[in-house]
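[Meeting: bench + compute handoff]

Bench side (C.D.) handed over the final construct sequence. Compute side (W.E.) agreed to return the predicted structure before the next meeting so the bench team could plan truncations. Sequence as handed over:
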Amino acid sequence: MGATITQFRKETPSDARQVRSREALTGALLALLEERSFDQLTIREITARAGTGYATFFRHYPDKEALLGDVATEEIAALLTLTIPILTEADSYESTKAICAYVEKHRKLWFALLTGGAAAIVRAEFIRQARELPDAIQASHKEWLPSDLGVVYGTGATFDLLAWWLSQPKRYTSDYIADILHRLIIAPLVGDSALPRRLA
Protein backbone atom coordinates (compact mmCIF):
# COMPACT_ATOMS: atom_id res chain seq x y z
CA MET A 1 0.00 0.00 0.00
CA GLY A 2 1.60 3.24 -1.13
CA ALA A 3 -0.58 5.71 0.73
CA THR A 4 -0.55 6.25 4.45
CA ILE A 5 -3.69 5.65 6.43
CA THR A 6 -3.93 9.28 7.51
CA GLN A 7 -4.55 10.36 3.92
CA PHE A 8 -7.94 8.65 4.08
CA ARG A 9 -9.23 10.35 7.21
CA LYS A 10 -12.29 12.58 7.12
CA GLU A 11 -13.39 15.31 9.51
CA THR A 12 -14.91 14.10 12.76
CA PRO A 13 -18.71 14.37 12.59
CA SER A 14 -20.61 16.53 15.08
CA ASP A 15 -24.09 15.05 14.48
CA ALA A 16 -24.97 12.49 17.20
CA ARG A 17 -26.31 9.96 14.69
CA GLN A 18 -23.14 10.19 12.60
CA VAL A 19 -21.02 9.79 15.72
CA ARG A 20 -22.95 6.64 16.69
CA SER A 21 -22.55 5.20 13.19
CA ARG A 22 -18.82 5.80 13.20
CA GLU A 23 -18.45 4.30 16.68
CA ALA A 24 -20.40 1.22 15.57
CA LEU A 25 -18.21 0.84 12.49
CA THR A 26 -15.05 1.26 14.56
CA GLY A 27 -16.19 -1.33 17.09
CA ALA A 28 -17.11 -3.75 14.33
CA LEU A 29 -13.71 -3.37 12.68
CA LEU A 30 -11.90 -4.02 15.95
CA ALA A 31 -14.01 -7.10 16.69
CA LEU A 32 -13.42 -8.51 13.21
CA LEU A 33 -9.67 -7.83 13.38
CA GLU A 34 -9.50 -10.19 16.35
CA GLU A 35 -10.94 -12.94 14.13
CA ARG A 36 -9.28 -12.44 10.74
CA SER A 37 -6.66 -10.39 8.93
CA PHE A 38 -7.50 -6.94 7.66
CA ASP A 39 -7.06 -8.02 4.04
CA GLN A 40 -9.74 -10.69 4.45
CA LEU A 41 -12.39 -8.28 5.75
CA THR A 42 -15.05 -6.80 3.51
CA ILE A 43 -17.06 -3.64 3.98
CA ARG A 44 -20.25 -5.73 3.94
CA GLU A 45 -18.96 -7.76 6.89
CA ILE A 46 -18.03 -4.61 8.79
CA THR A 47 -21.43 -3.00 8.25
CA ALA A 48 -23.26 -6.22 9.13
CA ARG A 49 -21.34 -6.48 12.38
CA ALA A 50 -21.92 -2.79 13.10
CA GLY A 51 -25.65 -3.02 12.36
CA THR A 52 -25.43 -0.17 9.87
CA GLY A 53 -26.37 0.01 6.23
CA TYR A 54 -23.84 -0.62 3.47
CA ALA A 55 -24.48 2.86 2.02
CA THR A 56 -23.99 4.38 5.48
CA PHE A 57 -20.39 3.21 5.46
CA PHE A 58 -19.62 5.28 2.36
CA ARG A 59 -21.14 8.40 3.88
CA HIS A 60 -18.31 8.20 6.42
CA TYR A 61 -15.40 6.48 4.65
CA PRO A 62 -14.29 5.86 1.05
CA ASP A 63 -12.91 2.41 1.96
CA LYS A 64 -11.96 0.18 4.88
CA GLU A 65 -8.44 1.67 5.04
CA ALA A 66 -10.00 5.01 5.96
CA LEU A 67 -11.90 3.37 8.82
CA LEU A 68 -8.67 1.82 10.06
CA GLY A 69 -7.05 5.23 9.73
CA ASP A 70 -9.56 6.80 12.09
CA VAL A 71 -8.83 4.18 14.71
CA ALA A 72 -5.08 3.98 14.34
CA THR A 73 -3.96 7.57 13.86
CA GLU A 74 -5.52 8.88 17.06
CA GLU A 75 -4.21 6.01 19.16
CA ILE A 76 -0.73 6.25 17.69
CA ALA A 77 -0.65 10.01 18.29
CA ALA A 78 -1.71 9.49 21.91
CA LEU A 79 1.00 6.89 22.44
CA LEU A 80 3.68 9.01 20.77
CA THR A 81 2.74 11.94 22.99
CA LEU A 82 3.74 9.76 25.93
CA THR A 83 7.16 9.14 24.33
CA ILE A 84 8.17 12.82 24.23
CA PRO A 85 9.30 12.86 27.90
CA ILE A 86 11.40 9.75 27.20
CA LEU A 87 13.46 11.66 24.67
CA THR A 88 13.78 14.90 26.62
CA GLU A 89 14.31 13.82 30.24
CA ALA A 90 17.42 12.31 31.83
CA ASP A 91 15.39 9.59 33.58
CA SER A 92 13.19 8.01 30.93
CA TYR A 93 12.06 4.98 32.94
CA GLU A 94 8.86 6.53 34.38
CA SER A 95 7.79 7.61 30.89
CA THR A 96 8.44 4.11 29.59
CA LYS A 97 6.18 2.78 32.34
CA ALA A 98 3.48 5.27 31.29
CA ILE A 99 3.58 3.98 27.68
CA CYS A 100 3.14 0.36 28.77
CA ALA A 101 0.40 1.28 31.24
CA TYR A 102 -1.47 3.10 28.45
CA VAL A 103 -1.27 0.09 26.13
CA GLU A 104 -2.41 -2.19 28.97
CA LYS A 105 -5.36 0.10 29.73
CA HIS A 106 -6.43 -0.07 26.06
CA ARG A 107 -5.29 -3.66 25.62
CA LYS A 108 -8.11 -4.88 23.33
CA LEU A 109 -7.66 -2.00 20.90
CA TRP A 110 -3.87 -2.27 20.82
CA PHE A 111 -4.04 -6.03 20.45
CA ALA A 112 -6.11 -5.54 17.29
CA LEU A 113 -3.84 -2.80 15.97
CA LEU A 114 -0.50 -4.48 16.74
CA THR A 115 -1.22 -8.14 16.14
CA GLY A 116 -4.16 -8.19 13.72
CA GLY A 117 -4.16 -8.36 9.96
CA ALA A 118 -3.51 -4.63 9.67
CA ALA A 119 -0.33 -4.69 11.79
CA ALA A 120 1.98 -3.84 8.87
CA ILE A 121 -0.11 -0.79 7.95
CA VAL A 122 -0.27 0.37 11.56
CA ARG A 123 3.48 -0.20 12.05
CA ALA A 124 4.25 1.99 9.02
CA GLU A 125 1.93 4.70 10.36
CA PHE A 126 3.56 4.46 13.79
CA ILE A 127 6.98 5.10 12.25
CA ARG A 128 5.62 7.85 9.96
CA GLN A 129 4.15 9.78 12.88
CA ALA A 130 7.31 9.33 14.95
CA ARG A 131 9.33 10.85 12.11
CA GLU A 132 7.13 13.96 12.30
CA LEU A 133 8.11 14.69 15.90
CA PRO A 134 10.13 17.91 16.18
CA ASP A 135 13.79 17.53 15.26
CA ALA A 136 14.89 18.44 18.79
CA ILE A 137 12.92 15.50 20.15
CA GLN A 138 14.13 13.15 17.44
CA ALA A 139 17.78 13.94 18.11
CA SER A 140 19.75 10.93 19.25
CA HIS A 141 22.11 11.15 22.18
CA LYS A 142 24.55 9.04 20.15
CA GLU A 143 26.75 11.02 17.78
CA TRP A 144 27.37 7.95 15.59
CA LEU A 145 23.66 7.23 15.11
CA PRO A 146 21.77 9.18 12.40
CA SER A 147 18.68 10.73 13.97
CA ASP A 148 16.24 9.22 11.46
CA LEU A 149 17.68 5.75 11.95
CA GLY A 150 17.26 6.13 15.69
CA VAL A 151 13.60 7.06 15.20
CA VAL A 152 12.94 4.18 12.80
CA TYR A 153 14.73 1.63 14.96
CA GLY A 154 13.31 2.85 18.29
CA THR A 155 9.76 3.12 17.03
CA GLY A 156 9.81 -0.14 15.09
CA ALA A 157 11.43 -2.06 17.92
CA THR A 158 8.95 -0.63 20.44
CA PHE A 159 6.07 -1.64 18.14
CA ASP A 160 7.47 -5.17 17.82
CA LEU A 161 8.04 -5.55 21.55
CA LEU A 162 4.50 -4.38 22.36
CA ALA A 163 3.05 -6.70 19.70
CA TRP A 164 4.99 -9.62 21.20
CA TRP A 165 3.72 -8.75 24.68
CA LEU A 166 0.08 -8.57 23.65
CA SER A 167 0.25 -11.87 21.76
CA GLN A 168 1.64 -13.85 24.71
CA PRO A 169 -0.68 -16.32 26.49
CA LYS A 170 0.95 -15.35 29.80
CA ARG A 171 -0.28 -11.98 31.05
CA TYR A 172 2.92 -10.05 31.76
CA THR A 173 2.37 -6.87 33.77
CA SER A 174 2.91 -3.49 32.17
CA ASP A 175 5.72 -2.74 34.65
CA TYR A 176 7.51 -5.95 33.69
CA ILE A 177 7.32 -5.07 30.00
CA ALA A 178 8.38 -1.48 30.75
CA ASP A 179 11.53 -2.86 32.38
CA ILE A 180 12.35 -4.85 29.24
CA LEU A 181 11.44 -2.01 26.86
CA HIS A 182 13.58 0.45 28.78
CA ARG A 183 16.64 -1.80 29.04
CA LEU A 184 16.48 -3.28 25.53
CA ILE A 185 15.42 -0.27 23.43
CA ILE A 186 14.99 3.05 25.25
CA ALA A 187 18.08 3.33 27.45
CA PRO A 188 20.57 2.39 24.70
CA LEU A 189 19.02 4.95 22.34
CA VAL A 190 18.70 7.92 24.68
CA GLY A 191 21.74 7.20 26.81
CA ASP A 192 19.79 6.87 30.06
CA SER A 193 21.87 4.93 32.54
CA ALA A 194 19.24 5.18 35.30
CA LEU A 195 17.95 1.62 34.87
CA PRO A 196 15.39 0.33 37.35
CA ARG A 197 17.04 -1.23 40.38
CA ARG A 198 15.88 -4.79 39.67
CA LEU A 199 17.46 -4.69 36.19
CA ALA A 200 20.67 -2.86 37.05
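W.E. noted at the follow-up: DSSP finds ten helices and no strands in the chain. C.D. will use this when planning the next construct.
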